[in-house]
């Protein structure tokens, strides 16, 4: 492209130079005939003036030729020149809209989507004897979700723990029923197990079982009953702990509270709820 422009430039320059020279000679001859009827010899200073006038004329013709687009325009087929938005650092070339186009891209935003907007709010699951309608509960600070039986239980948030409790009040003849959810960041798994055993002891309970389980979640399970197991009645309180490790090196401790006759009822319902527990990264 550059060679082509050079050739065109030289061609036009030669053409215009010849034309200017011809006009210069004709003009000089006319002036000479009118002012000097007799032939005279051109002096060096006259020739210098003439040459200077000729050069100025060439430059003037070239200048006006460029302004009028007389030379070959090689940029007309250039896609960058035709599209001012390509190959430019001018922010105004793309319009005056200052909107950040990345804000509608979920992958380019720092705003965290609430957990309740990422999962079904309600769904039906297979219960112990019949399908159960469950409802989503979330804790964005602790980054977990759990589904609970919404017809029989309520989910509540607390400063130190969340809790799932009976939706209706029970008679005094029934021991406390519910499930506590705690997140622990300052204890090891062994220390949390020790604390669970000490809590059972302070509640006057005897440890019935301690084992690693994989259902309803992977955890260490510790279960205790009030008093001596041989003296248990239908309403004897029972507590069951699950201690589960999280990927961020924290722990979750679940404390289930029910009573002897409810071990296969309420206790099993709590386990079915725990099966839906999930820490969301």
Brief descriptors of the model:
281 residues; alpha+beta; Protein Transport Mog1p, Chain A; 2 domains; 7-stranded antiparallel sheet; 4-stranded antiparallel sheet; 5 helices; rod-shaped
Outline of the structure:
It is built from five helices and eleven strands; from the N terminus they run αααββββββαββββαβ. The chain is an alpha+beta fold. The strands form two sheets. The protein has a seven-stranded antiparallel beta sheet with strand order 4-5-6-10-9-8-7, sandwiched between helices. Strands 1-2-3-11 form a four-stranded antiparallel beta sheet.
Notes on the protein architecture:
The chain has helices spanning 2-35, 44-67, 79-82, 189-202, 266-275; strands at residues 122-126, 131-139, 144-149, 153-156, 162-166, 178-184, 205-213, 219-226, 237-245, 251-259, 278-279. By secondary structure, it is an alpha+beta fold. It has two domains: 2-82, no CATH class; 115-279, 3-Layer(aba) Sandwich (Protein Transport Mog1p, Chain A). Strands 4-5-6-10-9-8-7 form a seven-stranded antiparallel sheet, with helices on both faces. The chain has a four-stranded antiparallel sheet with strand order 1-2-3-11. Strand 2 (131-139) and strand 3 (144-149) form a beta hairpin. Helix 1 packs across helix 2 (44-67). The longest helix has 34 residues, at 2-35. The two termini are 58 Å apart.
């Amino acid at each position: 492209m550059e060679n082509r422009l050079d050739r065109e430039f030289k061609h036009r320059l030669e053409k215009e130079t010849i034309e200017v020279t011809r006009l210069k000679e004709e003009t000089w001859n006319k002036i000479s005939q009118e002012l000097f009827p007799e032939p005279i010899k051109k002096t060096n200073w006259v020739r210098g003036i003439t040459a200077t006038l000729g050069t100025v004329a060439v430059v003037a013709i070239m200048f006006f030729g460029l302004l009028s687009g007389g030379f070959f325009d090689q940029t007309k087929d250039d896609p960058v020149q035709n599209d001012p938005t390509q190959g430019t650092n001018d922010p105004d070339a793309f319009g005056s809209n200052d909107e950040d186009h990345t804000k509608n891209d979920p992958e380019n935003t720092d705003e965290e989507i609430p957990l309740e907007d990422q999962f079904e709010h309600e769904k039906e699951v297979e219960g112990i004897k019949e399908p159960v309608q469950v409802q989503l509960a979330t804790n964005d600070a602790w980054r977990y979700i759990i589904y609970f039986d919404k017809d029989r239980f309520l989910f509540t948030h607390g400063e130190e723990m969340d809790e799932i409790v009976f939706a209706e009040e029970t008679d005094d003849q029934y021991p406390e029923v519910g499930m506590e959810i705690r997140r622990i960041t300052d204890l090891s798994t062994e220390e949390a197990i020790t604390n669970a055993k000490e809590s059972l002891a302070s509640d006057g309970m005897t440890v019935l079982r301690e084992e690693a389980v994989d259902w309803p979640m992977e955890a260490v399970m510790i279960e205790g009953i009030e008093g001596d197991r041989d003296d248990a009645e239908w309403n004897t309180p029972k507590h069951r702990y699950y201690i589960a490790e999280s990927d961020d090196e924290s722990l979750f401790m679940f404390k289930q509270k029910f009573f002897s006759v409810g071990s296969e009822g309420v206790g099993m319902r709590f386990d079915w709820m725990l099966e839906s527990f999930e820490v969301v990264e």
